[in-house]
Design brief:
The complex is a heterotrimer. Chain A is mainly α. Chain A is built from 22 helices and no strands. In chain B, the strands form 2 sheets. In chain B, strands 7-6-8-5-9-11 form a 6-stranded mixed sheet. The chains are: A mainly alpha, B alpha/beta, C mainly alpha. The structure holds sodium ion (NA) (2 copies). One sodium ion (NA) binds next to helix 17 of chain A. Chain A: This is TRAP transporter, DctM subunit.
Chain lengths: 440, 354, 171
C-alpha cells in the first residue's frame, strides 16, 4: 500500500464515523489506534499514545485555557457578564447588530490577552450568546461571530501558534507578533463590516432596541449604565492585558489574575459564595475536559497521520508542481485549508512549516509575510468543518440546544471573509509587513 | 502495511528498489536548524552508502513525542532513532545530567577528550542501557550566550534580578532568581520586562528566535549548560536487527559529522556577533574572571551534593570527570596554545580595524 | 435483573461524577499558584522553580479525570447531521456498534498502555526532567485511572443502550 492510498483510507474512515455521529473524541482516538496498529509497519506504535498523553497533559499552553474558562464561569455566575451585554444592547440603542459588534470588539481585546482560541470562544459563548439569543439575534450570525472573532487570539499577539512558528522556522518572534497585529485587525474589521452590512440589509438578523424602548433612556442613564455594568468587566479584560504589557505577568499568569479579578467583581455583585465557586469549578471541569479530550484524541490521530507518511505525500505533490509562484502559493494555501478540515491545527503547523517554508522562501516570498499568511490559514482551520475546534467548543459550551450542522453552516460566511482577508493581504502585503519594519 | 516512497535509482547504480529497513528518527529541533539539517544529511548519506538498504526518515521535534519523552519513546520503539539532549531523560537516570551538561564545567575539547579517552562514552552507554537505547553519536555544542536587558559585568551584578535558565541552582547562590519558564511565555515576559535575561542557545540560534530584538546585551561566557552534548541513539531491538555492515555504516556516518556540528554553530555565531556589533543592535560583554572562580567553587559543592544524593551511576560519572580533570588541567595548562589569554590583536599579530 | 443492573449503573455514574467533581477544585489551586507566583516574582523578587511545573501538571490531571463524567452527561461533541435525524433506538444501535469498533480499541489499548506506563514510573521512581524534578508517577497513575473510569462509564453506556434497544426502557 502506498502512503497516498493509506491517507485516503484514513480520511474516509474519519469522515464516515464522524458523519454517523459517534463522539468525535472516541472517533479520533479509536481510529488512531486502529490505523496505527494495522497500517503503520512498526511494532512500537501502541507506545506512541502514552507519549501523546504526556505531551498534551503536561503542556503549559493549556494552563491558560482552564483559567479563561474558569474566569468565564465566574463572570457568568456573577451576573456581570449578563449585565454588560444587556446594557450594551441598550447603549447601542438603535444600531443594528450592536451585540455582535460588541462581541467582536471584546474578542479583539481578549485576543490580545490570550494566545489560544479555546479561551475566547468558550468565554464568549458563556457571556455573549445568551443575550444575543434573548434578543432574537440571527442564530447563525451569532454563532459565526463568536467563533470567528474568538479565533483572533491565535493571530493577534501573544499567540502560541506564532511562537511555535518562530521557533521552528527560525524567524524573530517579535517581528511575527508585530506582523500579526495588522492581519488580526484586518480580520476584526472585516467581521465588523460584515455584521454592519448584513444587519443593514436585514434588520431581523440583529434587531436593535425598539424606538419606544430606546427613548426611555437618556444619555445620562446610558452613562451610568456604562459605568456600572460595562466598566467592571471590560476593565478586567483591560487589566489582564495591561499586566502583560507592563511586564508584571506572563500571559498565563495574567489569566490567573483575571480569575482573581472576576471573583472581586462577583463579590461586588454580592454573588460570591462557596456554592457559586463550586458550581464554577464543576462547569470548568466539564467544559475543559470535553475540549482537552478532543485535543488529546486529535493529537493521537495526527501523530498516526504523520507516521503513515502524510507529510511526505504533501511534499511530493507540491515539489512536483511547475507553475508560477502565485499559483504555487495558491496551491499551498488550498492544501493548508484542506488539511485544516481534517486534522488538528497543530498537525497542520507541524507538517506545514518544514514542507512549505523552504518552497515559498525559494520563490522569494517575504518570510514574515508568509508566516502571518500561514497563521491566518491555521486560524481558518479552527473554523473549517468538519474538524472545526471552534464549532466543537461553541456547541460543547452553549446552554442552548444546537445542531452541529447549524454551527457548521454558520462558519461559511466567516470562512469567506477569511479568504477575502487572505486575498487582501496578498494585494496589500504592507498590512502585515509595515509594523515589523518600523518596530525593531 | 505502508511503505515509504520507493527508492529512486536503477539496477546499474546498485541501489535497491525498496529499502530492507525503514527507520524514523525524531530530532529535537526542526528544518533549518543546525542539528536537524545535519542529521538529515547523514541519513541521506547512509541511504547512499548502504545502497538503498537502510532509509532513515528524519522528522522534527514533537512529531511523535514531546522533547521530554523522546528518549523513552525511542526506547519503546515508537521510532527507531532519536537525537536529543540526554537531560530530558534525567528523570529516569540522573547521571544523564552530569553526562551531558553542567554549570561552570568542561569546555568542548575537554569534554570530547573525557568522552572518548577517559570512559565518558561507556558511562553514557550504561545510562542509556536503562532506556533500551544504543549510543551511536555525540554532538557537543558550542558556547552559548546570555541575552540580557541589563549590562551585567559579573554574576554579582545580577543579584535581585530574574533570569530564565534551565538549572538555577548555581546562580541562586548569587541572589539571582532563576526561572524555568517555557519559550511560549518567556518571549512575551522578556520583551515586557518581567524577566531581565534568558539563555536558550548559541548566538546564532538566539538571533534566529528574535531574542536579539528584545535584548540589548549579549553576555559571555556561558556558565549554564556548558558545552552541552546531544546524543544520537538507536532503539536496541532495531539496532540488533541490523546486520553488522549496516551497523558500522550508521555508526561511522554519525560520528563523521560530530565535530562539524561544533564548528558550524560557533562559526555562524562569530558571523552573527560581527553583524550585530557593526549594526549596533547589540553590545557584548565578557563577565569578570573573579566571579567565575568563586562560581566554580560553588558549583563543586552542588556537584558533590548531587553525587551524594543520587549515588550509583551519577557518583561514578562525577568521579570519572574529577579523576580526568585532575590529570588533564595541569597538562592543559602547561601545553595550552600560545595565544590563550592574549587579546585578539596580539593573537593576530596586527591591529584590528574597527 | 434490570432493576439490579440499574443500581450498578447508577453506582458507576456516581463514581464518575464524584471523581470529576473532586478534581474540579484543582482549578482554584492553579489560580492561586499562578497569582502567587506573580507576587513572588514581581514584588518579592523570589520566584519559585516549581510553581509553573506544578500548575502545568495539575492542569493535565484535572481534565484527564473528567472524561467519564462528560460521557455520563452526554457532553462529548458529535456531528448530528445524520445521528440527529434517527430515532432513539437507531441512535442506541449506532452507539452499540461503534462501542465495539471504535471505543473498545481506543479505551482498551490506552487503559493497558497507561497502566503499564504508570507501573513503570512507580517502579523506577521516575522524575520529570526539570531541576525541581518531581515524581511523575502520580500523574501517570491518574492518566490510567481516567481511562479506567472511561472504560467503566463506557460499559455502563453500552448496557443502557442494549437495554433500550431490547426492552425500550431507559435506566
Ligand atoms: Na493572542
Ligand atoms: Na478545521
Amino acid at each position: 500500500m502506498t502512503p497516498e492510498t493509506a491517507l485516503i483510507i484514513v480520511a474516509m474512515g474519519f469522515l464516515v464515523v464522524l458523519l454517523l455521529g459517534y463522539p468525535l473524541t472516541f472517533t479520533l482516538g479509536g481510529l488512531a489506534v486502529i490505523f496505527g496498529f494495522t497500517m503503520w509497519d512498526n511494532p512500537g506504535v501502541l507506545n506512541l499514545f502514552n507519549r501523546t498523553i504526556l505531551n498534551v497533559g503536561s503542556n503549559v499552553s493549556y494552563v491558560s485555557c482552564i483559567l479563561f474558562i474558569f474566569m468565564g464561569c465566574i463572570l457568568e455566575r456573577s451576573g456581570a457578564a449578563d449585565d454588560m451585554f444587556e446594557s450594551m444592547y441598550i447603549i447601542f440603542g438603535r444600531i443594528r447588530g450592536g451585540l455582535a459588534i460588541g462581541t467582536v470588539v471584546i474578542c479583539t481585546l481578549l485576543a490580545a490577552a490570550t494566545g489560544i482560541i479555546g479561551a475566547s470562544i468558550t468565554m464568549m459563548t458563556m457571556l455573549a450568546l445568551p443575550t444575543m439569543m434573548r434578543y432574537k439575534y440571527n442564530r447563525k450570525l451569532s454563532f459565526g461571530t463568536i467563533m470567528a472573532a474568538g479565533c483572533l487570539g491565535t493571530i493577534i499577539p501573544p499567540s502560541i501558534i506564532l511562537v511555535i512558528y518562530g521557533a521552528q522556522a527560525q524567524i524573530s518572534i517579535g517581528k511575527l507578533f508585530a506582523g500579526g497585529i495588522g492581519a488580526g485587525l484586518l480580520l476584526s474589521g472585516l467581521y465588523l463590516a460584515y455584521i454592519v452590512i448584513r444587519t443593514l440589509i436585514n434588520p431581523e438578523m440583529g434587531p436593535p432596541i425598539s424606538k419606544e424602548e430606546a427613548d426611555k433612556y437618556s444619555t445620562r442613564d446610558k452613562l451610568i449604565l456604562i459605568l456600572k455594568t460595562i466598566v467592571p468587566t471590560l476593565g478586567l479584560i483591560v487589566l489582564v492585558l495591561g499586566s502583560i504589557l507592563k511586564g508584571v505577568a506572563t500571559p498565563t499568569e495574567a489569566a490567573a489574575l483575571g480569575c482573581v479579578g472576576s471573583m472581586f467583581i462577583a463579590l461586588a455583585y454580592k454573588r460570591l459564595n462557596w456554592k457559586m465557586i463550586q458550581e464554577a469549578c464543576f462547569e470548568t471541569m466539564k467544559t475543559n475536559a470535553m475540549i482537552m479530550w478532543i485535543i488529546l484524541a486529535a493529537s493521537m490521530f495526527t501523530a498516526v497521520f504523520l507516521g503513515l507518511g502524510g507529510a511526505q505525500v504533501i511534499t511530493n505533490f507540491v515539489t512536483s508542481l511547475d507553475v508560477s509562484r502565485w499559483v504555487i502559493f495558491a496551491v499551498v494555501a488550498i492544501i493548508l485549508l484542506i488539511m485544516g478540515m481534517f486534522i488538528d491545527s497543530y498537525g497542520v503547523l507541524l507538517i506545514g512549516i518544514p514542507v512549505f517554508t523552504p518552497i515559498v522562501y525559494a520563490l522569494g516570498f517575504d518570510p514574515i509575510w508568509f508566516a502571518i499568511m500561514f497563521a491566518v490559514l491555521i486560524q481558518a482551520s479552527y473554523l473549517s468543518p468538519p474538524f472545526a475546534y471552534a464549532a466543537f467548543y461553541l456547541k460543547g459550551v452553549a446552554k442552548e440546544n444546537i445542531n452541529i450542522s447549524e454551527v457548521y453552516s454558520a462558519t461559511f460566511p466567516f470562512l469567506g471573509l477569511q479568504i477575502l482577508a487572505i486575498i487582501l493581504l496578498c494585494i496589500f502585503p504592507q498590512i502585515i509587513t509595515y509594523l515589523p519594519s518600523i518596530m525593531y | 502495511k505502508v511503505q515509504t516512497a520507493p527508492a529512486s535509482g536503477s539496477a546499474s547504480s546498485g541501489m535497491q528498489a525498496t529499502p530492507e529497513f525503514n527507520w524514523k528518527m525524531q530530532v529535537i529541533h526542526t528544518t533549518g536548524q543546525s542539528d536537524f539539517e545535519q542529521n538529515k544529511q547523514t541519513a541521506e548519506d547512509i541511504y547512499k552508502m548502504s545502497n538503498g538498504r537502510l532509509k532513515i526518515e528524519v522528522v522534527p521535534n514533537g512529531t511523535f513525542a514531546s522533547s521530554s519523552e523522546g528518549f523513552q519513546a525511542a526506547g519503546d520503539g515508537v521510532f527507531e532513532m532519536h537525537s536529543s539532549w540526554p537531560i530530558y531523560a534525567k528523570g529516569i537516570e540522573y547521571a544523564l545530567l552530569p553526562l551531558s551538561t553542567g554549570s561552570m564545567s568542561m569546555d568542548a575539547m575537554d569534554k570530547w577528550t573525557w568522552m572518548y579517552e577517559h570512559g565518558g562514552w561507556d558511562l553514557s552507554q550504561k545510562a542509556f542501557d536503562k532506556l533500551n537505547l544504543q549510543l551511536v553519536g555525540l554532538e557537543i555544542w558550542g558556547s552559548e550566550v546570555m541575552m540580557s536587558k541589563k549590562p551585567y559585568k559579573g554574576l554579582s551584578d545580577m543579584a535581585g534580578n530574574k533570569m530564565r535558565t534551565s538549572d538555577p541552582r548555581m546562580i541562586a547562590k548569587y541572589g539571582v532568581a532563576g526561572i524555568s519558564m517555557p519559550l511560549e511565555e518567556v518571549f512575551t515576559a522578556m520583551s515586557q520586562g518581567a524577566v531581565e535575561s534568558a539563555e536558550f542557545g548559541h548566538l546564532k540560534y538566539d538571533e534566529s528566535l528574535g531574542l536579539v530584538d528584545i535584548s540589548k546585551y549579549g553576555i559571555y561566557p556561558d556558565f549554564w549548560n556548558v558545552h552541552f552534548a546531544t546524543t544520537v541513539v538507536v532503539n536496541k531491538d532495531a539496532w540488533n536487527s541490523l546486520p553488522p555492515d549496516l551497523q558500522l555504516i550508521v555508526e561511522m556516518a554519525f560520528k563523521a559529522r560530530e565535530l562539524q556540528h561544533w564548528t558550524k554553530s560557533q562559526y555562524e555565531s562569530a558571523q552573527t556577533m560581527k553583524k550585530l556589533q557593526e549594526s549596533g543592535d547589540m553590545e557584548f560583554i565578557r563577565m569578570n574572571k573573579e566571579d567565575f572562580i568563586k562560581a566554580r567553587e560553588e558549583m563543586v559543592k552542588i556537584e558533590q551534593e548531587d553525587a551524594a544524593k543520587y549515588g550509583g551511576l551519577t557518583a561514578e560519572v562525577y568521579d570519572s570527570i574529577n579523576e580526568f580533570q585532575e590529570m588533564w588541567y595541569p597538562y592543559k595548562d602547561m601545553s595550552s596554545w600560545w595565544g590563550a589569554g592574549l587579546t585578539p590583536e596580539q593573537q593576530l599579530g596586527y591591529p584590528l580595524e574597527k | 435483573m434490570v432493576q439490579k443492573l440499574a443500581k450498578v449503573l447508577k453506582g458507576i455514574d456516581k463514581i464518575s461524577e464524584f471523581t470529576a467533581k473532586s478534581f474540579s477544585y484543582i482549578v482554584l489551586l492553579i489560580v492561586a499558584l499562578q497569582a502567587f507566583e506573580v507576587v513572588r516574582r514581581y514584588i518579592l523578587k523570589s520566584p519559585t522553580d516549581w510553581s509553573w511545573e506544578l500548575a502545568t501538571m495539575l492542569t493535565g490531571v484535572s481534565w484527564m479525570v473528567g472524561v467519564a463524567w462528560v460521557l455520563k452527561e452526554g457532553k462529548h461533541v458529535r456531528t448530528d447531521i445524520i445521528y440527529g435525524r434517527l430515532s432513539k433506538k437507531w441512535q442506541a444501535i449506532i452507539d452499540i456498534v461503534f462501542f465495539g469498533f471504535i471505543f473498545t480499541p481506543f479505551v482498551g489499548v490506552l487503559l493497558w498502555k497507561t497502566t503499564q506506563n504508570a507501573f513503570f514510573a512507580w517502579s523506577i521512581d521516575e522524575r520529570t526532567f526539570s531541576m525541581w524534578g518531581p515524581p511523575i508517577a502520580p500523574s501517570k497513575t491518574i492518566f490510567a485511572l481516567s481511562f479506567f473510569l472511561l472504560a467503566l462509564q463506557g460499559i455502563a453506556k453500552l448496557l443502557r443502550d442494549i437495554i433500550y434497544v431490547v426492552k425500550g426502557e431507559e435506566v
